[in-house]
Design brief:
Number of domains: 2
Largest sheet: 6 strands, mixed, barrel
Distance between the termini: 30 Å
Helix content: 40-55%
Radius of gyration: 33 Å
Strand content: 15-25%
Number of strands: 11
Shape: elongated
Number of helices: 18
Length: about 475
């Protein structure tokens, strides 16, 4: 075996230029696969981090809320949620895995700035601010684009709210909230049709207040109208702390954040408060299967008979799985394409070597080398090229990844309108590096099989007479 490897190495050095060009093709193919794979891995970690920071690894919901209840939090809310939280936190198996367990309430409503005669439908989120601040500290993958700042609602009164910048523009609050890039408003259209029903008009008159100007020392206000469990409207008058961009335009145009207690009063009034979800954030995503199993056990025992279900972040966010599936398909296509290029390049190199060394092959066969020995020499040449290409390709890919990450490049992902860092994550991704290297070596060895088989089948007399 040592003699075979020595002969194979000498044969590669015999035509350095051809071997170098073949090696270069292998390096470029491996680097393309690894860099794109590292780019996908960074996107995967970024998406997962964003979802885990905002909604946790797991959520406890009413079993029908995810399919039917998003428009009716009163009917599909979780009762006695404080006891559920206490049970999870005190459980000897589940408790050590948890970083945060927090309730939230989400519902649709109508927000109005009646002083400016404008309103629109909004999506309200009620949260426990301190819990959300702790959730924002989760960064298990060391992402550079993670914003760990505290929520602006920290330390504010109960009736304080945050809205998206897009919603601020719609409600004509740009000056009061210092929102930039507000387009010039078109003239208001003349009203047409019948007047508002008297009861709705009376409700608007009741809650309508002029928006405070920036110079009077008061915060601007809006009114939020939501349906109560009995169907009657509840109205809350809230002070706006700020308008903050939410990253995604569709969310930014409808976003309202409230303290959980204020959101519960708006929806449930004097009735017992509920929440739409209980979020569980774990120390590490690798703990998810064990944590989910334990949560399900607790729901089946301590809360047996209650209509509760547990969902993970992938089920709550189908976009996550769809995005990863798309990138896996693209990665597979690129890997097959690069593998085909390497396959034909190495095969062509070995075929040319067979033609040039026909007399040498005849001599080796004449002195007693078996057909299997001839095949082994050419296959070993392919293996040596593959191993050398894998080693150098991994090193160059790691260097290229460090350079790319150091350039602080940015890009705009699908569904977002803000720049995020462009990064390639290869350091520490040992499984991806190992599989890619083994794949290159296998392709190089397979590429040499056909030329090696052709060389081993040569007639000894014809090979010796070859000029």
């Amino acid at each position: 075996m040592i003699v075979t490897l020595s002969l194979a190495w000498r044969n590669l050095l015999r035509n350095r230029r051809r071997s170098l060009m073949t090696l270069l093709a292998m390096l470029l193919g491996l680097m393309a696969v690894l860099l794109f794979g590292g780019y996908i891995r960074d996107i995967t970690y970024s998406l997962q981090t964003n979802f885990v920071v905002s909604s946790g690894h797991l959520q406890i919901q009413h079993r029908d809320y995810f399919r039917l209840g998003t428009g009716n939090p009163a009917a599909y809310g979780v009762e006695d949620y404080e006891r559920i939280i206490q049970t999870f936190q005190s459980d000897p198996t589940l408790g050590p895995m948890l970083t945060v367990v927090t309730p939230s309430l989400q519902f649709g409503a109508i927000a109005g700035n009646f002083a400016a005669s404008v309103s629109r439908t909004v999506y309200v989120t009620g949260v426990v601010v301190d819990d959300q601040n702790r959730m924002r500290q989760w960064n298990d993958y060391g992402q550079r684009n993670l914003s760990s700042r505290n929520l602006s609602l920290s330390g504010t009164p109960e009736n304080t709210a945050i809205i998206g910048t897009g919603l601020a523009r719609v409600l004509k609050l740009c000056d009061a909230l210092q929102v930039k890039d507000c387009a010039t408003e078109a003239p208001a259209a003349e009203p047409s049709g019948s007047a508002l029903p008297s009861d709705i008009a009376a409700l608007a008159d009741t809650v309508g207040r002029p928006v405070a100007s920036r110079g009077d020392g008061q915060r601007p206000r809006i009114e939020i109208l939501a349906a109560s469990p009995r169907g009657a409207p509840n109205v809350a008058d809230v002070r706006l702390l700020a308008a903050e961009f939410q990253g995604v335009k569709e969310l930014d145009d409808v976003y309202v954040a409230l303290h959980l207690s204020q959101a519960q009063k708006l929806v449930f009034g004097a009735a017992p408060p509920r929440v739409t979800a209980i979020a569980l954030q774990l120390h590490h995503t690798a703990q998810l299967p064990a944590a989910r199993q334990r949560v399900q056990e607790l729901l089946n025992t301590s809360f047996k008979g209650e209509p509760l279900a547990v969902l993970d972040y992938q089920e709550l966010n189908p976009f996550y799985g769809q995005t990863l599936a798309m990138f896996r398909a693209i990665f597979g296509f690129i890997a097959v394409l690069m593998g085909s290029i390497v396959l034909f390049t190495v095969s062509n190199t070995m075929s040319m070597a067979v033609v040039e060394r026909t007399s040498e092959i005849g001599t080796l066969r004449a002195i007693g080398l078996r057909r299997s020995g001839i095949r082994s020499i050419f296959v070993c040449e392919g293996l040596l090229l593959g191993c050398l290409g894998a080693l150098i390709g991994i090193l160059l890919s790691l260097v290229a990844a460090v350079v790319i990450n150091g350039l602080d490049l940015t890009w705009v992902p699908p569904g977002r309108i803000e720049q995020v860092p462009l990064a390639v994550r290869l350091i520490g991704e040992n499984m991806m590096l190992t599989i890619s290297a083994i794949g290159l070596v296998v392709v190089a060895a397979v590429s040499a099989l056909v030329p090696a088989a052709r060389a081993s089948r040569m007639n000894i007399v014809d090979a010796l007479r070859h000029v």
